[in-house]
C-alpha cells in the first residue's frame, strides 16, 4: 500500500490494471484512487515504478486502536490522466520539445 498527496485538480479512480515501462521492462499490477488530500495505490506482487510514493504497508503491524506517532514524507503528485501510477504534469503530457503530444483542438478550428 502506498500513499501520496493530491493537489487540487482531477481525481483518479483506476481499477485493477497493469502498467509496463517499455524501457526498463518493469511491470506494476494494482489499483489506485485519489480523493483529496490523499491518493492511494495498492500493488500486487510488484512495487510501483514511481519511487516517490510513500509506502504504508507497515501500518498493518499496528493493532486496531493502537496509538502512535509517525512521520511520513509524502510527495504531492498530480493526477491529470486516468492511467494507473502516471504522475506527469499537464505540461509534460502535452508537449515534447515544443511539439504537442495530444491534439487540444480540432484540426478544422
Strand order of the largest sheet: 2-3-4-1-5
Q: Structural class of the helices, strands and pairings?
A: mainly beta
Shape: globular
How many helical stretches?
Answer: 1
Oligomer description = single chain
| SSE ordering | EEEEEHEE
Poorly predicted segments: 102-109
Distance between the termini: 45 Å
Question: What is the number of beta strands?
Answer: 7
Q: Supply Rg.
A: 17 Å
Tell me the helix content: under 10%
What this model shows, in words?
The structure is a single chain. The termini are far apart. The protein is 5% helix and 30% strand. It is built from one helix and seven strands; from the N terminus they run E-E-E-E-E-H-E-E. The longest helix is centred in the last third of the chain and has 5 residues, at 90-94. It has one helix spanning 90-94; strands at 2-5, 13-20, 27-35, 38-43, 54-55, 95-96, 99-100. The protein is mostly beta strands and 109 residues long. The strands form two sheets. Strands 2-3-4-1-5 form a five-stranded antiparallel beta sheet, with no helix packed on it. Residues 102-109 have low confidence and may be disordered. The protein has one domain.
Amino acid at each position: 500500500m502506498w500513499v501520496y498527496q493530491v493537489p487540487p485538480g482531477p481525481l483518479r479512480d483506476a481499477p485493477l490494471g497493469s502498467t509496463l515501462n517499455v524501457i526498463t521492462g518493469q511491470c506494476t499490477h494494482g489499483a489506485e484512487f485519489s480523493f483529496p488530500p490523499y491518493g492511494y495505490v495498492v500493488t500486487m506482487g510488484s512495487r510501483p515504478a514511481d519511487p516517490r510514493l510513500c509506502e504504508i504497508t507497515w501500518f498493518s503491524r499496528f493493532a486496531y486502536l493502537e496509538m502512535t506517532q509517525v512521520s511520513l514524507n509524502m510527495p504531492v503528485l498530480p493526477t491529470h490522466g486516468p492511467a494507473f501510477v502516471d504522475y506527469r504534469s499537464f505540461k509534460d503530457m502535452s508537449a515534447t520539445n515544443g511539439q504537442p503530444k495530444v491534439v487540444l483542438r480540432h484540426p478544422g478550428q
